[in-house]
Amino acid sequence: MNISVLGTGNMGKALVKRLSEKGNHPVRWGSRSPEETKELARQLQLSNVTVSTNEEALQADIIIPAFHAAVLKEWAIAHKEQLKQKIVVDISNPFNADFSGFTTAWGESSAEQLQALLPESSVIGAFKNTFFKVVDEPVHEGQVSDVLVTGNDEEAVKAFMEAVTPLPFRFLHAGKLENNRTIERFTLLELELAFRYNTYPYISLQLFGIKTPVAAN
Ligand SMILES: NC(=O)c1ccc[n+]([C@@H]2O[C@H](COP(=O)([O-])OP(=O)(O)OC[C@H]3O[C@@H](n4cnc5c(N)ncnc54)[C@H](OP(=O)(O)O)[C@@H]3O)[C@@H](O)[C@H]2O)c1
Q1: Cα-to-centroid distance, 67 and ligand 1 (Å)
Q2: How far is the CA of 209 from the centre of ligand 1 (A)?
Q3: What does the pLDDT look like over 77-121, one tens digit per residue?
Q4: What's the chain look like in SS3?
Q5: Domains present along the chain, CATH in parentheses
């Protein structure tokens, strides 16, 4: 299994850091500007990361496009063929431009929309509820965030969870993709809470009472 992250924004950068530091799999980092990304990787002192174009990054088994939902859809349509039989990890939250609501209707989720666009790929929802600052600094007072993992293809969910297990998060199997209707909407509530309690952008979720192994710090 090798993993690609596409995009060098807040989430792309933080995910590459975590995967290269703790993951057991080769990591490729795709972007629209590989030369700038090489410099970024050097500044961040990342090892075990191969920088490439977004196109080359499609060679991986697990692909994490860290794009906004609208960009993600265009990208999926354009690369549907190359993404066949791949695990495509959807981290997107379909918030509207001023974060007051959603671009999806009730009863829809970005993850299900992506799966509909990529019927021969296995879409996994993950990291939606985990804000970039938490991915960047995952251990808080000795505790780690829960990351809700969803997917309709059980084999793909298993493969993804095995691949990311060493990362400092507690990955919880959160069921089918349709649960992203709730996860994506809950994430906007997290944002509101973060502003209300002055912790933005440091907020994530940790559920009480579930006994399951937690990744090492
Ligand atoms: N921010 C969070 O805390 C957070 C938490 C959970 C989930 N998410 C989700 O993660 C995704 C990325 O969020 P983000 O905060 O990392 O966004 P961001 O900082 O704006 O980064 C988005 C990246 O997408 C890439 N990109 C590729 N094609 C693009 C295009 N046509 N136009 C603009 N950018 C393009 C760019 O990387 P290159 O220039 O390298 O190509 C850009 O840096 C979103 O779907 C968001 O909902 C975010």
Answers
A1: 4
A2: 33
A3: 999 999 999 999 999 999 999 999 999 999 999 999 999 999 999
A4: CCEEEECCCHHHHHHHHHHHHHCCCCEEEEECCHHHHHHHHHHCCCCCEEEEECCHHHHCCEEEECCCHHHHHHHHHHCCCCCCCCEEEECCCCECCCCCCECCCCCCCHHHHHHHHCCCCEEEECCCCCCHHHHHCCEECCEECEEEEEECCHHHHHHHHHHHCCCCCEEEECCCHHHHHHHHHHHHHHHHHHHHCCCCCCCCECCCCCCCCCCCC
A5: 3-196 (3.40.50.720)
